Amino acid sequence: MAAAAVPNRWSSLEYGPLNTLTEIVAIDGPAGAGKSTVARRVARELGMAFLDTGAMYRAATWRAMKHGVPLDDPERLVASTSSMQYQVLGDDAAPRIVLDGEDVTNRIRTPEVTGNIRCLDGIPRLREHLVAMQRELGALRPTVAEGRDMGTVVFPGAKCKIFLDASLDSRTRRRAAESTGHGADVDLERLREDIRLRDENDRSRAASPLRPADDAMIIDTTGMSLDEVTAAIVSLARERI
Ligand code: DC
Question: Is ligand 1 within 6 A of the CB of residue 221?
Answer without folding.
Answer: no
